[in-house]
Amino acid sequence: MKKFEWYPQALLNSYAQVFFSNNKWFGIILLLLTFVDFYVGLYGLISVSTALLTGYFIGLNEFNIRQGFYGFNSLLVGVGLAIYFQPGPLLLFLIIISGVLTLFVSLAFEGILGKYGLPFLSLPFISVFWLLRLASRQFEALGLSERGIYVLNELYLLGGTKLVQMYEWWNQFPFPSSLKTYFLSLGAIFFQQNVFAGVFAAIGLLIYSRIGFTLSLIGFYIAYLFYILLGVPFTEISYSYIGFNFILTAIALGGFFIIPNKSSYLSLLVIIPMLTVLSISLQEILNIFYLPVHSFPFNLAVLTILYGLKFRMDNRIGLSTIFWQQNSPEKNLYQFSNFMERFGKDSPIPIYLPFFGEWTVTQGHNGPYTHKDDWKHAWDFEIKDEEGKTYKNEGDYASDYYCYDKNILAPSDGIVEEVVNDIDDNPIGTRNLEKNWGNTIIIKHAEFLYSKLSHLKKESILPKKGEKVTKGDIIARLGNSGNSPYPHLHFQLQATPYLGSKTIDYPISDVWMRYQGMESLKSVANPPMGALVSSLSPHSSLKKAFSFVIGDQLKFKTTNNEEITWQVKRDYLLNRYLECENSRAKAYFKLDEAMLHFTHFEGDRRSMLYQFYLAAFKISFGFTNGLEISDSYPLHMVFHPKKIFLQDFAAPFYLYLKGEYRLRYPEKGKGLSLKPLELKGEVRKTAFGRTLDTASFEFFIDNTGIKRFHFQSKHSKNELSWIEAS
Questions:
Q1: Cβ atoms within 10 Å of 396's Cβ, excluding its own
Q2: Which CATH number is associated with domain 359-506?
Q3: Does 325 or 654 have the greater pLDDT score?
Q4: I need a surface site. Which of 32, 167, 257, 625 has the fewest CB within 10 A?
Q5: Which residues form the M23ase beta-sheet core domain (predicted)?
Q6: Contact at 8 Å (CB) between 483 and 423?
Q7: How far apart are CA 101 and CA 643, in angstroms?
Q8: Closest C-alpha to 355, from 421, 417, 410
C-alpha cells in the first residue's frame, strides 16, 4: 500500500541507527546478522515493526520514523528478550508490548534530552530492558532460552551447508585473542555472541564508514591496553562482551557527534580510559541487582561529554560538534571542512561594509596602534588615491581627507541602541581622549550582536535611539571626533550595547578585496590591514536570475525538448532548496542581498539540477569587469564513493582530493544592465594537485533571467533553455 511506502526505509534505518547510520546496505547487513539466530532475528523484526507502526498510527513525525530514530531501541529490546527467553506465544506478546513501551520511553527521553540538544541514544533500550529483566523474575510461564545449542541447525535452515561452513570457519579461525574479543564485542551489540556475527558487523561497518571502522578499532584497543595497564584481566571483556561500549563511544565522540580530526582521535586517549573505569564500577553496582551493564557506560559517557562541551567559551582544542548531522562521519567531515573553508565561521546575521565605494583598511584586527587586548577585533577604514595618499593638498584640514564627510551606512538591519552626536571635530593632528569614541552610533542586530561606528561628524547621525534602520540606509557622515588625529571610520562588532564594550571576532559578509596584488570576492572575511575593500553593487539581471523566491517554479526545456520544472521550497528547518519535479533531486542554497551559495545536494547526480548545483555553486550579483570567483566543493558532493574510499581513512588528518569551482564574469559588462551576460566556469577534480577530471559550464543571462544554461563533461553534454518562471 502506498501509505506504507515509508516502512522499508524506516525498517532498515532502525537497524543501521544502532551504529548512527542511515545507510540502507548497512541496515540490510545488520538485519541479516540478527538472523544468525533465527528467533532473535524474527522477534527483533517484530519488535521494531511494532514500534514503527505505532509511531505512524499515533501521528509522529514521518521524517523521524523514516530515519529509524523511533525504531532502533525497540529492536534492541526485542533481540535482547529473544536471547533470554524461549520462543512462544507469551514471548511474542511480551515482545509486542515492549516494542510499544520502548517507543513511548524514547519519546520521553527525546523530550527531556532534546531541550539540551542531546541525543537519547540507547537509554530507552536500557531502561525498558532492565525493567523487563526485573519483572521477568515473576514470569514463571516464560521459559529461559537455551539459545546457542541449536545455532548450526538454524543456520542450515537459513542458508544451507555453505552458511554453516562459513560460520564454523570464522569461529575456528585462529584470531589473536584481542581481535577475537573485538569481533565478539561487535556481535554482542545485537546479542550475537559469536565471531561470525562480529566479522559480519565489521564488514558492514567498513562499508558504511571507513572513519567509523577505524575508530571502532582505536576505541577497543585503547581499552584493551588500559585493562592490561590496570592489571584487570581482559577476560572480563571477553566474558561479558561489554567491549562494544568502547567501540560505540569511540565512533560517537571520535567522528559522529564531533567532527573527526586529530583532536577527536587524540581525545579518545583520555575518554576511553575514563569509560573503562566507569564500565568496571557500574558493573560492580549492577551485579548487586543481577542486571547486565550492556550499553549504559556508553550512554553515560557520551551524554556527559556532549553536555559538558556546551559550556565552552571557545574551541581552542578543536573539538567541533556537528551543526548539520548527515549520519556519516565522512560526510560530516567533508561538509564541515568545506563550510569552514567557504564561510570561515558561522555568521547567521550578515554584517556588510558600512560605506559606498572602495576604502582601505588602515588598521585591522590586532592592529599596531589602538586595536589591542579586549578591543582588538576592529577595523579602521580610510579612502586612498592612486598614489596611496589619504588626503589632497597638504592635509592640514579635515576637508582635505577623501573620507571626510562621506556617507556612512547601516551595516545590517537593526535598532539603534545608542547615539552620541554632539562632539566637535578635532583639528588635524590632535585627539580628544576625554571623549575617546567621538560621535558614535551603536546598532543592535540580534541578541549579543551589536555594531559600533565611531569618529562621526557632529550632528550628522540621522536615526534616533530606538529607531529601526535597514541595511544600506544612510545613517551618518564621517567626521574627525574623539581619539582621531585625522578622519577615519572605526567599525567594530560587540556582544553588549555599551560605548566601551569589548569587541567580538565576527566577519564581514560579501567583501570584494584587493590585497597583496590579488583580487578576490569573499563570502565572509576579516579584511587585514592594507586591504582595499568594497561592496559590489548588484547587477539587476544577475539578481533577477538567481534570487529564487519560495513558491516560484522555474521551467526549462532540454535539447531533447523535454520539459523540466524546478520548484523553490523551504523545509521545516527553514532551509531553502530547489526541487526537480522529474527526479525529486534537491539542491539547498543560501541567499542574501549580494550572493547565492549552494550548500548541499540530495538525489540523482545524473539530473540537470545536480549540474546546475555545480555550476551555480557561488554567484555574486555584483562584479567588476573580468572578476573571477573561486570556491571548493565538499568532496562527497563531487567524487564517487569508490573514488574517495582511501581518502576517507586519511580525511581526519589530510585531504589530498579537491573539488574546485571557478566562475568568470565578462571583461566588459558592468554598468550595462540591459546587455546580456555570459558567465563561464569550470569544475575541476584534483588529487595531490594533479587534475583528474574537468567539466565546463556557461550561463547566458538577459533582463528576463536565465536564458540558457550549458554544462559539458566527458560523461555528458546537456543544455537547458529557459521557458518561464511563475
A1: 11
A2: 2.70.70.10
A3: 654
A4: 625
A5: 405-494
A6: no
A7: 44
A8: 410
